[in-house]
Design goal:
The complex is a heterodimer of chains A (258) and B (361). With 258 residues, chain A is an alpha/beta fold. Helix content of chain A is 35%, strand content 25%. Chain B has 361 residues and is mostly helical. Helices cover 72% and strands 0% of the residues of chain B. The two termini of chain B are 50 Å apart. The chains are: A alpha/beta (258), B mainly alpha (361). The interface between A and B is medium-sized, with 33 and 26 residues.
C-alpha cells in the first residue's frame, strides 16, 4: 500500500545554516516524483527529511509538518525506526554491507528486524531480487559477497534490499549518478515496475531522466551560496518540461542559468 | 618549446623521442661487485675495521658508483630515481635486520632448554647448582593474568570506543577522549603502583583478614589499566573508518542504532579491532614491572589468580637473566622464546578467527 506524502512549510537546518526554506508539496501515492535543481539547492536535504535521515548528522533540525497519510512523522511520540521501515531509501553510491553475501544483503532489513524463519527469508530474497531485475544475474552465486558485484548490480542489490522490507515509499538520492547508461536504463525500467507498488521520489541531476521517468517534477533552486534552497515550481513533469510557469525553471531546464 | 623543456632540460622527453637508454642489469651487478672488492681492499688492507665496515663502505661506494654510471648513460632523472630506490631498499633491510637478529638469537639460545622439564616443572626447590627447573608456574601465571586482563579490558575498551564514535557528543566525550590519550602514555610501573596502592593495600585486606595480599588478579588489574587506552584508541580509529553511508543504509531499512552498530559496523571493522586488541595483549604479556609489584613473583605453581603470589613469563625472564646460577640464562632464553611463541600463536589464531567471519572475495 503506497502512501501520500504531504510536506507543509518544511525548513531544515544544519546547525544555524538553513538548508531549505518553507517547502510545501504533496506527493500522490503510486507515482514517481523527480526533484531537480543545481547542486547545493537542498533537494537531497529535503529527501532526507522525508525519512528522518536528516537528523542522523549532529546539529540538524527540522521545522514544519511532514505527514504520511495524515500522520506527522515528526511528532515526538513517533518511533524513528518505524518511519524508516515505512520509507526506504536508496543512496547515491551503492552501499551493500561488505561483510554480507548477496543473499544476506537482500534480507538484512528483515533479519535485523527480527524475522527468523528461513522459508520466509528465502522467499523474500527471491521476490525482491526478481523485482529488482537482478535474480537471473545472481541466482547462482547468492553466497558470494555483495561488494563483488558491478556498480549497477550493487545498486540494484541495494534497491532489492530496500524493497525487501516492503516500505510504502522509496526515496532515491541520485541512484544512477555513479552508473553507466546501461545500468541507468535498467534502474529506470525498474522504477516503472515498482511504481505499481510504491510511491517513489527521486533526486536527479539528469533532466532527461526526470523527464523520462517522473509523473511530477519539483524544481529547487538557491539565489546565491549561503541562501536556503526553495521549491521554485512543482507541477506535472509534462508541464515543467514544456511550459514551465516560472522563468527560473525555464532557464534551468534549457541550460540558461546563472 | 615548452616551459618544462626550457627550464628543466632533460626532465621531459620531446614528443619526437620518448625512448631512453637503460642500463643492462649486468652493470648493476658489476658496480656492486666492484664496490665490494674496492671496499674490502681498502678496509681490510689498511686494517681499520672488520667485515661490517666493508659492507657499509661498499654500500656507499655502490650508491656513488651507480649514480655516476646511471647519470652518464640514463640521464640525471633516472640516476636520482635509482639512488632513492637503492636508499629505500637499504632502509628496509636496516629496519628488518634487528628484527631478524632478535628472532635468530631467541631461537638459537632458546632451544637449549626446550625440554619436557622446562614446561612441566616450576622453580620450586631449584637451587643454584640444579641444571633443571622450569617455567610451568610462569606460563600458568602469564596465561591467567593476561587472560583475565583481556576479559576485562576488551569489553570495556570496545564499548568505550563505541560510545566515543557513535554516541559521544559534547564536553563529556571530549574529556573521555583526552584522558584516554593521556593514559596511553602511562608507564607500566605507574599502573603497577596504582594497583599496589589501591587494590593490594586498601581493597585486598577486606578479603584477607586485614592483611594485604599479592595476587595474579592484581597484576591483571594493572595490565587492564595498560591495555584499555590502546584498545579504545585503536577500536575508535577502526570504527571511524566504517563509511557513514553504510550506517545510513542500515538506518534506511529501519534497523535500530544498536543493532546497526552490532551487526553492521562492528563486523565491518572487526579485523582492525582484533589487530588492535592483539597489540595490546602482546604488550601486556611482556610487562614485568606491574607483575613484580603486585603479584610478587613466585617459584612454585599457583593456579589461583585470586590468592597468593604468582609469577609470569616476563618476570621469570627478568629474574633468571639476573640470577647468579650458570643454568639461569638458558632458562631465561627459553622463557623468552616461549613468551614470543605464545603471543605469536594467539595473534595468528585471532586473525584467522576474525577473517573467518567476514567473506572472502
Amino acid at each position: 500500500m503506497a502512501k501520500r506524502i504531504e510536506a507543509s512549510n518544511v525548513s531544515s537546518y544544519y546547525g544555524s545554516f538553513k538548508a531549505i526554506d518553507n517547502v510545501s508539496m504533496t506527493v500522490e501515492p503510486k507515482s514517481i516524483t523527480a526533484l531537480i535543481g543545481p547542486s547545493g539547492c537542498g533537494k537531497s536535504t529535503f529527501l532526507r527529511s522525508i525519512n528522518r535521515m536528516h537528523e542522523v548528522l549532529p546539529g540538524t533540525r527540522i521545522e514544519g509538518r511532514l505527514t504520511i497519510d495524515d500522520q506527522n512523522i515528526y511528532d515526538p511520540d513517533v518511533d524513528v525506526t518505524a518511519v524508516r521501515r515505512m520509507i526506504g531509501m536508496v543512496f547515491q553510491r551503492p552501499n551493500p554491507f561488505p561483510t554480507m553475501s548477496i543473499y544476506e544483503n537482500v534480507i538484512a532489513g528483515l533479519k535485523l528486524n527480527g524475522v527468523k524463519k528461513k522459508s520466509l527469508l528465502d522467499d523474500a530474497a527471491e521476490q525482491s531480487l526478481r523485482s529488482a531485475n537482478l535474480w537471473e544475474e545472481v541466482k547462482d552465486r547468492l553466497g558470494r559477497p555483495g561488494a563483488g558485484l558491478s556498480g549497477g548490480q550493487q545498486q540494484r542489490l541495494c534497491i532489492a534490499r530496500t524493497i525487501a522490507v516492503e516500505p510504502q515509499v522509496v526515496l532515491m538520492d541520485e541512484p544512477c549518478s555513479a552508473l553507466d547508461p546501461i545500468s541507468t536504463l535498467a534502474i529506470e525500467d525498474l522504477m516503472f515496475k515498482l511504481k505499481d507498488r510504491f510511491t517513489i521520489i527521486i533526486v536527479t541531476h539528469n533532466m532527461q531522466q526526470a523527464a523520462r521517468v517522473s509523473d511530477k517534477t519539483g524544481f529547487f533552486s538557491i539565489d546565491k551560496t549561503g541562501d536556503p534552497g526553495r521549491l521554485i515550481e512543482y507541477d506535472d513533469t509534462q508541464k515543467i518540461f514544456s511550459n514551465p510557469a516560472q522563468k527560473k525553471t525555464e532557464d534551468y531546464i534549457t541550460g540558461r542559468f546563472g | 618549446m615548452s616551459i618544462l623543456d626550457r627550464e628543466l632540460p632533460g626532465v621531459v622527453m620531446t614528443p619526437d623521442n620518448i625512448r631512453t637508454r637503460r642500463l643492462p642489469p649486468a652493470v648493476n651487478v658489476g658496480v656492486a661487485l666492484a664496490a665490494l672488492v674496492v671496499s674490502a681492499a681498502v678496509v681490510l688492507g689498511t686494517g681499520v675495521g672488520n667485515w661490517v665496515l666493508v659492507v657499509v663502505v661498499a654500500v656507499v661506494l655502490y650508491l656513488v658508483g651507480m649514480n655516476v654510471t646511471a647519470s652518464r648513460i640514463e640521464g640525471r632523472r633516472a640516476a636520482r630515481n635509482r639512488m632513492w630506490q637503492a636508499l629505500i631498499y637499504s632502509a628496509c633491510v636496516l629496519a628488518v635486520l634487528p628484527l631478524a637478529s632478535v628472532v635468530w638469537t631467541l631461537l638459537s639460545e632458546g632451544v637449549g632448554r626446550l625440554d619436557g622439564d622446562f614446561f612441566g616443572t616450576s622453580m620450586n626447590n631449584i637451587g643454584a647448582r640444579d641444571p633443571n627447573g622450569g617455567a610451568y608456574h610462569a606460563i600458568v601465571g602469564t596465561l591467567e593474568q593476561v587472560g583475565i586482563a583481556t576479559l576485562m579490558a576488551v569489553p570495556l575498551g570496545v564499548l568505550g570506543a563505541i560510545y566515543l564514535v557513535e554516541y559521544g557528543r559534547g564536553r563529556f566525550a571530549l574529556t573521555v577522549r583526552f584522558f584516554v590519550d593521556v593514559m596511553t602514555g602511562i608507564p607500566s610501573i605507574v599502573a603497577g603502583l596504582f594497583v599496589l596502592a589501591f587494590w593490594v593495600l586498601i581493597v585486598s585486606p577486606w578479603f584477607n583478614d586485614g592483611q594485604p595480599r599479592f595476587s595474579g588478579f592484581a597484576a591483571s588489574l594493572a595490565l587492564t589499566v595498560l591495555m584499555l587506552p590502546t584498545i579504545v584508541r585503536s577500536t575508535e580509529e577502526m570504527l571511524r573508518l566504517v563509511p557513514g553511508p553504510l550506517r545510513e543504509g542500515a538506518y534506511a531499512l529501519g534497523v535500530p542504532q544498536w543493532k546497526t552498530i552490532l551487526r553492521i559496523v562492528l563486523p565491518t571493522a572487526l579485523p582492525g579491532i582484533v589487530t588492535g586488541i592483539m597489540l595490546s595483549v602482546a604488550r601486556a604479556a611482556g610487562e614485568t614491572a606491574p607483575v613484580l609489584l603486585v603479584a610478587g613473583g613466585a617459584a612454585a605453581i599457583n593456579f589461583d589468580p585470586f590468592a597468593g603470589n604468582q609469577s609470569s613469563l616476563a618476570l621469570f625472564v627478568y629474574q633468571q637473566a639476573g640470577d647468579a646460577s650458570k643454568y639461569a640464562p638458558a632458562r631465561a632464553w627459553t622463557a623468552a622464546l616461549t613468551l614470543v611463541t605464545i603471543v605469536l600463536v594467539l595473534t595468528i589464531a585471532a586473525k584467522l578467527l576474525a577473517r573467518r567471519n567476514s567473506l572472502s572475495r
